[in-house]
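seq as requested:
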Amino acid sequence: MTESTRSPLVQPWDVIEIGARDYLNGDGPLRLRVIHVRAEAAHPNIEWIHLLGTRLHGNRDGQMMMVMVRAAALRRPGAVIRPGPASGTKVPFHDLMPQVHQDAPPASSSTGTSDPQG
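struct tokens:
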């Protein structure tokens, strides 16, 4: 497989699962849905990769975080889960962002007007 046809080590939409020793200042196991991978991650001799993503808690997205991950950890079987679109598919940036659930708009007052002063 040539360098140009090799699948990237990690890409947006991937979920990574690594131990605390495999990311800088690790505070326990990390499950991260990747949003952005810096361009230098494609370098074959890179040791650390900068990733932006959302930490996963169960199946829910949590806090957004930037982490430096050991490239060797991402090469381990099972460390990178690729559930998203096929490699090379363009995904709109807004689709990569965690979903924000907004409360329903406030109900109108008993007077039936939309004036907040009521």
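The mean pLDDT is 77.
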